[in-house]
Amino acid sequence: MNNQIKPIPEEIQKWSWGAFMFNIWWGIGNKTYLPLLCLIPIFNIIWVFIVGAYGNSWAWQNGNFDTVADFKLANKVWERAGIIKFIFYVAVSCLLLTIFIIFSIIMIIAD
Question: How many CB atoms lie under 10 A from the CB of residue 58?
Answer without folding.
Answer: 20
